[in-house]
Design a protein that fits this description.
Helix content: 25-40%
Strand order of the largest sheet: 6-5-4-1-7
Largest sheet: 5 strands, antiparallel
Structural class: alpha+beta
Shape: globular
Mean pLDDT: 86
Distance between the termini: 49 Å
Oligomer: single chain
Length: 111
């Protein structure tokens, strides 16, 4: 195979990898609490309480959500309202300090 083919293939791979890497995942961001949060052990408001977080607390890590947040939809949603709509109706496991628990995602806002 000609060397030009391999150079083109290498360039295409680099650009595709760079574009994918620049996509922002909702799981690689920090969030703040929009209100006082109760972190539940299970994704159920009636489950045991793991901890509490005050409104305005920043630095909340999102581990995973149920149902999952689609990466393509998240990256297409570039403003607060659109991303908040994607969070609505989901339960997410979060971490703040040494507390890990589950919250309703509409109570979170990307920082």
């Amino acid at each position: 195979m000609p060397a030009a083919f391999f150079r083109a293939l290498t360039c295409a791979t680099f650009f595709l990898t760079t574009a994918y890497a620049s996509a922002q995942s909702p799981y690689h961001m920090r969030y703040k609490a929009l209100g006082n949060l109760v972190l539940n052990v299970e994704m159920d408001p009636d489950s045991q309480v793991a901890g509490r977080v005050r409104a305005g607390t920043k630095g909340i890590k999102l581990h995973w959500c149920e149902p999952d947040i689609p990466l393509d939809a998240w990256n297409e949603a570039t403003d607060f309202a659109a991303r908040h709509t994607l969070l609505a109706g989901r339960w997410c496991q979060v971490e703040i300090g040494n507390i890990v628990g589950n919250v309703r995602a509409e109570m979170l806002s990307p920082e």
